[in-house]
């Protein structure tokens, strides 16, 4: 009996010790979890919404879990397919809750100042030490740009690689929405890329041509993401076009016919959208080719009047301009003055009454590349003179330059550019946030115009 009592006492004591130890372990675990949660609550965080979006869609960027009134730096970085590093940064101070909202708060310094919700995109620049400034262009349009947003303590301006980021978030910026089809076009001498929206169609469609930069697909891909079949055309500065080919009016007429023949395209709902020389060519087509009947025309910074229908090769006229080109104080090419000195034939910008469709003119008044403002004013006057002024809508932006891109694209006042036989640094014009605002507003106007007329 005494032995059994001793055994029970020992067992009871062991159980109590085990239970105490278990309770201690559980208490320790709870304290550890509480500490971890507390630490997580006090670890700075940065997040973007949405993390995947089209290039023309805005995002919300916020920072939380900072001390109140804490100076911080937000830095955006992007690597293009040439492995060039692009970066922008901005300085903020957290509010009394330890938060920063880029959509509402003002940047106190860095790549821009003031409240600029998308400033960390449009102010991107090639990092110091990189190659000669180039435009940000997407070579593989079916993959996104990947943008990292990093948070740093204090207001810093350089040597970011030597600093440890407090937090990082990553975004994907796409030109193609899911389901958009991308088709290489090499037919009847036409070189380009056709983008078709998701679904069976038929879709309203656009020919899309830029200036003298070869084949540029990003705008066409965005338009297809918005419901328009879009053929991005190449002409000069493209390896599959011989030097000088792809510049006569017949090339663009063949492109029109090709687009009309696509089964997914509504053949009676075609429009034209061009920038620079591309816009001038489309104005020429709409005004003087009776078998081309666009439903609407968008012209961005057009030098209309420089081109005449009887010229078989527009490249030759451009080459005659180059010896007259002046340089600014920084050695940048200023083709606008050369065009004006050459004697742009503004009176020949179109046959009176030739244009039968609504026209949207987008003008950067600080365009240093071509006399787009003078051309737009003359076209307006000619349309009014023949009783068609009601067909013309013009939006003119005082501090916007030549390269009016879709929204949030980096603003480039100058960049390297391949002219026939030489690479130069071209002066495009444009003033920072004013040019960025023009890109955003003009894109909205373009989409509204296309929705109305196509």
Automatic annotation (TrEMBL):
One of its GO terms (biological process) is fatty acid metabolic process. It holds the Pfam family BAAT_C. Residues 249-454 form the BAAT/Acyl-CoA thioester hydrolase C-terminal domain. Residues 56-187 form the Acyl-CoA thioester hydrolase/bile acid-CoA amino acid N-acetyltransferase domain. InterPro entries: AB_hydrolase_fold, Acyl-CoA_thioEstase_long-chain, BAAT_C, Thio_Ohase/aa_AcTrfase, Thio_Ohase/BAAT_N. GO terms for molecular function: fatty acyl-CoA hydrolase activity. The active site is at residues 276, 367, 402. It comes from the Eukaryota. PANTHER family: ACYL-COA THIOESTERASE 17-RELATED, ACYL-COENZYME A THIOESTERASE-RELATED. Belongs to the C/M/P thioester hydrolase family. This is Acyl-coenzyme A thioesterase 4-like. It comes from Erpetoichthys calabaricus (Rope fish).
């Amino acid at each position: 009996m005494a032995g059994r009592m001793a055994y029970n006492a020992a067992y009871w004591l062991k159980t109590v010790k085990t239970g105490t130890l278990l309770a201690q372990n559980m208490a320790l675990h709870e304290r550890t979890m509480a500490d971890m949660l507390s630490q997580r609550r006090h670890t700075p965080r940065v997040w973007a919404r949405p993390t995947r979006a089209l290039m023309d869609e805005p995002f919300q960027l916020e920072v939380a879990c900072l001390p109140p009134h804490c100076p911080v730096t937000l830095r955006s970085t992007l690597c293009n397919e040439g492995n060039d590093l692009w970066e922008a940064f901005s300085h903020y101070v957290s509010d009394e809750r330890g938060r920063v909202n880029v959509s509402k708060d003002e940047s106190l310094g860095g790549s821009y100042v003031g409240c600029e919700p998308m400033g960390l995109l449009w102010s991107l620049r090639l990092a110091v030490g990189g190659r000669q400034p180039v435009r940000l262009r997407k070579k593989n349009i079916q993959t996104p740009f990947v943008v990292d947003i990093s948070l740093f303590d204090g207001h810093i301006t350089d040597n970011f690689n030597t600093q440890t980021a407090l937090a990082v978030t990553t975004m994907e910026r796409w030109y193609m929405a899911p389901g958009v089809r991308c088709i290489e076009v090499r037919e009847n001498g036409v070189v380009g890329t056709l983008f078709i929206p998701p679904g069976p169609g038929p879709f309203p469609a656009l020919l899309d041509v830029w200036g003298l930069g070869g084949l540029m697909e990003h705008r066409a891909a965005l338009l297809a993401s918005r419901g328009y079949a879009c053929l991005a055309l190449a002409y000069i500065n493209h390896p599959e076009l011989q030097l000088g080919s792809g510049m006569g009016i017949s090339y663009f007429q063949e492109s029109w016919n090709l687009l009309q023949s696509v089964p997914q395209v509504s053949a009676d709902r075609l429009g034209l959208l061009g920038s620079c020389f591309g816009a001038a060519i489309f104005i020429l087509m709409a005004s003087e080719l009776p078998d081309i009947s666009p439903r609407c025309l968008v012209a961005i910074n057009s030098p209309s009047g420089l081109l005449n229908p009887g010229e078989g090769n527009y490249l030759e006229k451009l080459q005659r301009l180059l010896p007259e080109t002046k340089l600014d104080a920084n050695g940048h090419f200023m083709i606008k003055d050369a065009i004006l000195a050459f004697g742009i034939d503004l009176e020949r910008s179109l046959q009176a009454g030739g244009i039968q469709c609504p026209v949207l003119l987008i003008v950067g008044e600080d365009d240093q590349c071509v006399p787009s403002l003078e051309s737009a004013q003359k076209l307006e006057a000619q349309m009014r003179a023949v009783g068609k002024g009601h067909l013309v809508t013009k939006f003119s932006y005082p501090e916007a330059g030549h390269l009016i891109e879709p929204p949030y694209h980096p603003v480039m006042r100058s960049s390297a550019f391949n002219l026939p036989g030489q690479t130069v640094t071209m002066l495009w014009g444009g003033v920072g946030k004013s040019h960025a605002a023009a890109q955003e507003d003009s894109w909205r106007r373009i989409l509204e115009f296309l929705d109305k007329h196509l």
